Amino acid sequence: IVNAAVGLLATGGSTNHAIHLPAIARAAGIRIDWNDLDRLSSAVPLIARIYPNGAEDVNSFHSAGGMAFAIHTLLEAGLLHRDLVTVAGRDLTDYSSEPAFDSESLVWREGPRTSRDESVLRAAGAPFQPDGGMRLVSGNLGRAIFKTSAILVERLTIEAPARVFADQNEVLAAFKAGELDRDVVVVVRFQGPRANGMPELHRLTPTLGVLQERGFKVALVTDGRMSGASGKVPAAIHVSPEASVGGPLAKLRDGDIVRLCARQGQLEA
Question: Which of 174, 182, 185, 203 is nearest to 239 (CA)?
Fold first, then answer.
């Protein structure tokens, strides 16, 4: 479980894992939560720049050295537990090798020990940033995940009036009507698992990104999820407790001032 969390943080992976890893751990009788991910994130460096925290995709990641190099450098830095039984049958070192064909036979060869493209993948000793880019924010609006790895430093703190919605289509309509052309914290509530199964809110990032590019201070706060779409726009996602069970998001009104700060871990009205 710890290795999975380290791998997630080191590669800038999906915020969905903030839901999945605690659930997987709980099924195995182990309790971890966002506090643990936050603490690990402060110690695990970001070694990959692939979408959404970079322009390249997973194919470029593989070409640069992929999982074999990532596991090698994290093991070398002492950031992974090596001594565990794996599907390969020995320990985690096996996964720093790569499969290949020798004639018609499958063989395993030592994987790359240096990155083939440092704009995409780097050694743990020379990372893109010293932390894993996934932070816990909390306050009188609840607790949430904030993925910082794709956010410019000057956007890590946003304080602005709220505009409250109950559906992502309402956000798009307000945007088209010009109602969001200002500093704004867009709040999309009643999107949690108890309310409607917690759907993906993929359509929000491009829209809010346009407002951001126009020079406005913009952030998103939601009890829904965004998976890989939580990119360049500051976002507090998976807010818990969710609005439909009486969470504080249900009490917000248009114009309330909301402060979202990844530096100080704040999610406050």
Answer: 185
DSSP 7-36: HHHHHT--TTHHHHHHHHHHHTT----HHH
Residue 109: beta bridge partners? 98
Task: Answer whether 232's CB lies under 8 Å from 150's CB.
Answer: yes
Cα 217 to chain centroid, rounded: 21
Q: 56: burial class by Cβ within 10 Å (0-12, 13-18, 19+)?
A: middle
**Tens-place pLDDT, residues 76-117:** 999 999 999 888 778 999 999 999 999 989 999 999 999 999
**Span 124-167, pLDDT tens digits:** 999 999 999 899 999 999 999 999 888 889 999 999 999 999 99
Question: What residues form DSSP beta bridges with 105?
Answer: 102
Grouping H, G, I as helix, E, B as strand and the rest as coil, residue 217 is coil
Between helix 66-76 and helix 2-11 the angle, nearest 10°, is: 110
